[in-house]
Design a protein that fits this description.
Strand order of the largest sheet: 3-2-1-7-6-5-4
EC number: 2.7.13.3
Protein name: histidine kinase
Strand content: 15-25%
Number of domains: 4
Keywords: Kinase, Membrane, Phosphoprotein, Transferase, Transmembrane, Transmembrane helix
Enzyme class: transferase
Structural class: alpha+beta
Radius of gyration: 52 Å
Catalytic activity: ATP + protein L-histidine = ADP + protein N-phospho-L-histidine
CATH topology of the largest domain: Heat Shock Protein 90
Distance between the termini: 124 Å
């Protein structure tokens, strides 16, 4: 038991010794590391300060050399005022304390004109300039007691007033130069000394507790007698080094470095505890920075991966966009080629038929035939323009669906009225089959007609002579009791379409390339418009087709049931022409031909017409007319003197009872949605685009008149 206890004690002691040795070794290594790092850090700082002093010396010599090269241009004239001005300009430019000439007796002529002798620690310094023609850097005291560092160089002798000039110099305050060397290391615990070749203090930093000695090397030797050959190391030995000394009773690191002036040394002294604290702080900061850098690196790696992923995604997206843009441009190019052909063909017909009509004006039957063909070509041109305008409105999101009470039977009859003659011309049969329970619904009859007529007119175009076309409308239960579901099938046994084209049939500017249909007119916009209208009505459209067997379009719409049946619908089916007969119309139109056509057509419809050639005349005509004399104003928009918008606003502001109630209808070639909005803002009641459809004008006047009457 006793032996075991001894063994335990010995074991514990060995562990304690081992741990103590490890700790001691760690402490020793830590001290070595701190000394190594501290001294290295101190040497680096000393190098930086020495480099700054060297750069400052280099700059000073450059300034002085420039001055010496320039002085003859100013001073050889012997003009003292010029000298003073020149020196002052140099001082403002380079920021030194003084720049002056040195005469043969060592006197200094300042830029102010003052003449003085400087006090030098080495009185021979200035005479080395004027007598030995040497460059000199020397400490001195200015006439006002300021400690300065002088850079002086010889010049070619010349006479300035009563002085024989043999040198020039530039000087800085010692403290200013030391501050320019300072890199804010160790705050105010760092002492900096500049020593000449004899160890004399040329310049020193001024801090509380700094070693104040004329010969700082001698002062260090007295406090550190055990250090051998200290003066030899600091003044005559190697150019740089670092050691630990006592200074003012404190352990201090001393770093010495050569500077730009031959034989001079820079001493840098910092207490050991200050450096070590700095290094410990530096180590902690470095550790924190390492952690931060690791985190930044990790974040950077994630960022780089994300960046390249995003770049690849953007590149792919750009490729898709470029491919889409290329296809779109290709489609537009095909469209423009087709549109050019489609516009030129009827336009050629219009011009040709007009020429033939004029040549056969005495043959009424021939002339009427030519005129009828002119009207057909003109209507086709208008339909092309309307398609382009519809596409523009749809693309801008400005196309509006107007839901109102409508009769499905009337819709079917209007479809039949348009399509029957087209089919009859090609000896085709057109059949309509319906299963409808609710005739009255809430919908946009105008655009529903446009859907049906677009599809069926294509069916007529692409179905050969003697072919068959069907329209089937079946009503099914809707999503609720308030709605009915209408399934519309448009079928034909025409030439059909290839599967490759079916995938693009609803795209704008698209026509199938086929020699069998190249002669058929079409802009390639109709199906794009149809699909857009169906989607605006919250419906769906589907197409099936096979070459040589025909095509079937299926349209499905949910329409609200109008259970009231509407006397208004019956009333609106009355003759619209009566609303024009007997009306007094003020027509504002600056184009003579358009004005003449409109006047004749309105008079044939039974209206009384007064005309104005611009907006100003229209305003004056209305203002001078009896109260409620005019029923309607047809206002062109683009007119000289005063346009239609301004004229309408002016009329609405007139102080007469009918200024607000008079119907003002815009008639203009400006047919985009923004033009309609501008008309509304100007106070117009409606907007009709040119070329003017007088049937549509009659209907518009009828609708506005009925609404006015109800109001």
């Amino acid at each position: 038991m006793k032996k075991q206890r001894i063994r335990n004690i010995i074991g514990a002691a060995l562990i304690i010794i081992a741990l103590s040795s490890t700790v001691a070794a760690m402490v020793y290594e830590t001290k070595k590391t701190i000394y190594r790092e501290s001294s290295g850090h101190l040497v680096e700082i000393a190098h930086q300060m020495s480099d700054r002093f060297s750069e400052q010396c280099k700059t000073n010599w450059n300034v002085l050399d420039s001055f010496v090269q320039d002085y003859s241009l100013v001073y050889k004239t012997g003009n003292k005022e010029n000298m003073v001005s020149f020196l002052s300009d140099y001082r403002r430019t380079w920021g030194y304390l003084h720049l002056f000439f040195i005469d043969e007796n060592g006197s200094f002529i300042y830029e102010t004109g003052k003449v003085s002798k400087l006090q030098f620690d080495n009185s021979q310094s200035i005479y080395r300039v004027v007598a030995n023609q040497e460059r000199v850097v020397a400490p001195a005291t200015d006439y006002d007691g300021t400690e300065i560092l002088l850079f002086a160089a010889p010049v070619e002798a010349f006479e300035l007033e009563r002085y024989t000039i043999k040198g020039a110099g530039i000087c800085y305050e010692v403290q200013t130069m030391l501050e320019s060397m300072n890199i804010n290391a160790f705050k105010e615990s760092c002492d900096v000394y500049l020593l000449d070749e004899e160890g004399i203090t040329v310049a020193r930093s001024i801090h509380e507790g700094s070693m104040d000695a004329y010969n700082v090397v001698n002062a260090i030797e007295k406090e550190n007698p055990k250090i051998e050959d200290l003066k030899q190391q600091l003044l005559l030995g190697s150019n740089e080094g670092v050691m630990q000394i006592k200074a003012g009773g404190r352990d201090t690191y001393l770093s010495y470095t050569s500077v730009a002036v031959t034989g001079w040394k820079q001493l840098l002294m910092v207490p050991v505890d200050v450096v070590n604290n700095e290094m410990q702080n530096y180590t902690q900061v470095t550790g924190a920075l390492v952690v931060i850098l690791i985190l930044i690196a990790a974040a950077a790696i994630v960022g780089i991966v994300h960046y390249f992923y995003r770049i690849n995604a953007e590149k792919r997206q750009k490729e898709i966009e470029l491919e889409y843009e290329h296809k779109a441009n290709e489609s537009k190019s095909h469209f423009l080629a087709n549109m050019s052909h489609d516009i030129r063909t009827p336009m050629n017909g219009v011009l040709g038929m007009a020429t033939l009509a004029a040549a056969n004006i005495d043959d009424k039957q021939k002339a009427l035939g030519y005129i009828e063909k002119i009207q057909i070509s003109g209507k086709y041109l208008v339909s092309l323009i309307n398609d382009i305008l519809d596409v523009s409105k749809i693309s801008e999101g400005a196309f509006e669906i107007v839901a109102d009470s409508m009769n499905m039977r009337d819709f079917i009859n209007e479809i039949r009225t348009v399509v029957d003659p087209l089919a009859a011309d090609k000896k085709q049969s057109f059949t309509i089959e319906t299963e409808i329970q609710n005739e009255y619904v809430i919908g946009d009859k105008l655009h529903l007609n446009q859907i049906g007529i677009n599809i069926l007119s294509n069916a007529v175009k692409f179905t050969p002579q003697g072919g068959k076309i069907w329209l089937t409308i079946v009503e099914r239960p809707g999503i609720s009791e308030e709605y009915a579901h209408y399934h519309l099938e448009f079928r034909d046994n025409g030439i059909g379409m290839k599967k490759e084209f079916l995938d693009h049939i609803f795209e704008s500017f698209t026509r199938e390339k086929d020699s069998t249909i190249n002669s058929i007119e079409g802009s390639g916009l109709g199906m794009f418009i149809v699909k857009s209208l169906v989607e605006l009505m919250h419906g769906t459209i589907h197409v099936d087709s096979e070459p040589g067997k025909g095509t079937c379009f299926c349209v499905d719409l949910e329409l609200e049931i109008d259970r009231e049946g509407t006397m208004e619908e019956k009333e609106e089916n009355t003759d619209n022409a009566k609303f024009v007969r007997g009306k007094r119309v003020l027509l504002a139109e600056d184009n003579m031909i358009n004005r003449e056509i409109a006047v004749e057509m309105l008079r044939e419809m039974g209206a009384f017409v007064a005309t104005a050639e611009n907006g100003q005349e229209a305003v004056e005509e209305f203002a001078q007319s009896p109260l409620r004399y005019f029923d309607v104003i047809l206002m062109d928009v683009m007119m000289p003197v005063m346009d239609g918008y301004e004229a309408s606003r002016t009329i609405r502001k007139l102080e007469r009872e009918d200024a607000q109630s008079i119907l003002i209808i815009a008639i203009t070639a400006n047919a985009f949605q923004e033009d309609v909005i501008e008309s509304e803002k100007a106070g117009m009641d409606a907007h009709l685009s040119k070329p003017l459809d007088f049937a549509a004008l009659s209907e518009k006047i009828a609708v506005l008149t009925r609404h006015k009457r109800k109001g």
